[in-house]
Write a structure and sequence with these properties.
By secondary structure, the chain is mainly α. The chain is built from 24 helices and 6 strands. The strands form 2 sheets. The protein has a 4-stranded mixed β-sheet with strand order 1-5-6-4, with helices on one face. Strands 2-3 form a two-stranded antiparallel ribbon.
Length: 582
């Protein structure tokens, strides 16, 4: 799972130098206007694109800001609809279609007023600044002043997000109590920080500024931290305690929100890019669980274990041989796996990204409710590497036999390779390079775990079982997400699939369930996308036989940027036809 930095979840959507120009003047104008709109509407995104003036600004998340954004989106939709299809090349027609889909999705998000839910269980507006501090390095006086300007806007940003959440309380559009409590725990830790050691000062401390200039900037930042920033954090804690928690949703289902059934159906379409119904996805999940479980049984037998499947899971969850003894050891294991994976890439891909990546631990204050690992996007323009984040807290919940699959998903050939490649596709229009298509991006991550078998990354039957346990985890997501949000399941019923069929620890199961509750529909994209990718590869292998080249297939999939699954299917179909003629 990658970490996004747009409003609730962070987005490092990075623009390479130079934008591909459309041959059609109307298209060129439309694409330029959309890019300008995004830079103005989301300065966090724009800053990561290397737009210097945006580094000093924060998004206007107020209702007035949303109204202004929707007006621009309507105008852009009108411009897009006025461009005649005649005369467009197939690629230009695809560019227009993908932008039209993106405009419609952004308008729908405003229509559902998603701003009223400004936080998830493990992220939100209250964690944005920590990621900005890591992702926007300070190299000169301009960067320093920009960061101080953003810190000066901290209070207004908090106030507007709290006001949005307050509107949610009034409308009954609120997170459940377990999510609100998790956010409150983090908010209390943030409010209690010693300003002198606050991570928001880290980028200034590390900045290559003249000593006097650095001291002045640090003094100003610390003044803000001791004054308005501390007050804003305290106000968020008080709001959660006095207003939000007492009115938090007593049930878990998205369907229980006002207009929730329509909203959840839209989320399913948004995150899967299909027309599958929640009931159809639930049934698919149950089918996948049965298929994967059969293979897990076979792998278990190869270990020589003589007990039952349940006993084998208990053995994997408790035997010390499967667990790192220190945070540093876990990170070292993750780094070693990453480098082994790096060495396999040339045999699987014709084009590799130039941007590098690193391995770092999840920040301590959020690790308790954070997932096992994530990818934090880098920025070629800002000179920031991508990072594979490893949760080094609660070591008895972090088995080493799962680490190869996690690493392949978050680093390479998963999120880093796919996202960094997309960032470097200067030949594509900007809106295609910055597209956030969960079924494609997370589907690729899960497909990358499968690729690990071909790469020889799973060196023991336990690691193979760990890979299958991770695939089972994503299959159970189809069951649990639809179970919670469509069928009204409680946490115990939703967690049964994970406990009975995967080796996930109880801590991770609890954390994952909280995530599905807080972020309806998002977890569906992984397995839906991976299933389609494996189907397309099987089709290509069957059609091409000995002419099939896995490197060319992967380049076909990745070098058009993230695509909805139907568009990806069309692209692969055209590629197969072209390969047959070679």
């Amino acid at each position: 799972m990658r970490y996004r930095l747009i409003a609730v979840a962070a987005a490092c959507l990075c623009l390479m130098s130079g934008q591909a120009a459309a041959a059609n003047p109307a298209l060129e104008s439309l694409f330029a206007q959309y890019r300008a709109y995004r830079i103005e509407a989301n300065p966090i995104e724009a800053g990561n694109l290397g737009v210097q003036e945006a580094l000093s600004r924060l998004p206007d998340v107020s209702p007035g800001g949303q109204i202004a954004q929707e007006a621009v989106l309507v105008r852009l939709q009108q411009l897009a609809g006025a461009i005649p299809a005649q005369g467009l090349t197939p690629e230009e027609a695809l560019d227009l279609r993908l932008l039209s889909l993106r405009l419609a999705e952004e308008r729908a998000s405003i229509r559902f007023d998603e701003a009223r839910l400004p936080f998830l269980n493990d992220s939100g507006f209250h964690t944005v600044f920590e990621y900005l501090a890591q992702g926007n390095p300070i190299r000169n006086a301009k960067d320093s002043q920009a960061w101080l300007a953003r810190l000066s806007g901290f209070s207004t940003y908090y106030a507007r997000n709290i006001a949005n959440a307050r509107r949610g309380v009034k409308a009954g559009f609120v997170q459940p109590k377990l999510v609100a409590q998790r956010v409150l725990d983090v908010a209390r830790l943030q409010a209690a920080r010693d300003p002198a050691s606050d991570p928001l000062l880290d980028s200034l401390r590390e900045a290559p500024l003249p000593p006097a200039e650095k001291a002045q900037a640090l003094a100003e930042a610390e003044r803000l931290l001791r004054g308005p920033i501390r007050e804003a954090r305290i106000s968020f804690v008080r709001f959660l305690e006095a207003e939000y928690l007492p009115k938090a949703k007593p049930t878990l289902a998205a369907k229980d929100w006002p207009g929730g059934a329509e909203y959840y159906r839209w989320l399913v379409r948004r995150y899967t890019t299909t027309e599958l119904s929640p009931d159809a996805i639930h049934a698919l999940g149950l089918s996948e669980v049965a298929r994967i479980r059969a293979r897990m049984q076979d792998v278990m037998l190869t270990t020589g274990f003589s007990g039952s499947f349940a006993q084998f899971l208990a053995f994997l969850r408790t035997d010390p041989q499967f667990y790192a003894q220190s945070r540093e050891s876990l990170l070292e294991h993750a780094a070693e796996i990453s480098k082994r994976a790096d060495g396999q890439l040339p045999g699987l891909f014709g084009r590799l990204p130039r941007l590098s990546y690193g391995v770092r631990a999840v920040p301590l204050e959020i690790e308790e409710g954070y997932t096992t690992g994530r990818y934090q996007e880098g920025s070629p323009d800002l000179g920031v590497a991508g990072f594979y984040l490893v949760n080094t807290g609660n070591l008895p919940a972090r088995p080493l036999y799962e680490l190869p699959a996690l690493t392949l998903h978050e680093a390479v050939p998963g999120h880093h390779l796919q996202i960094a490649l997309t960032q470097e596709l200067a030949e594509l229009p900007w809106h295609r390079r910055t597209a956030d298509v969960t079924a494609f991006i997370e589907g690729w991550g899960l497909y990358s775990e499968y690729l690990g078998e071909e790469m020889g990354m799973y060196r023991t039957p336990y690691e193979v079982f760990g890979r299958l346990s991770y695939e089972m985890w994503r299959a159970c997501r189809l069951v649990a997400d639809t179970g919670i949000h469509w069928k009204g399941w409680g946490l115990e019923q939703a967690g049964r699939c994970f406990r009975e069929n995967s080796a996930l620890s109880e801590h991770n199961i609890k954390t994952e369930l909280e995530r599905y509750v807080a972020w309806p529909g998002q977890a569906l994209g992984y397995k839906i996308g991976e299933i389609r990718l494996r189907e397309l590869r099987a089709q290509a292998q069957a059609a091409l036989g000995p002419k099939f080249d896995v490197r060319r297939f992967h380049d076909c999939v990745l070098l058009a940027g993230p695509l909805p699954l139907d568009v990806l299917s069309q692209r692969v179909g055209a590629w197969i036809a072209a390969e047959q003629k070679r």
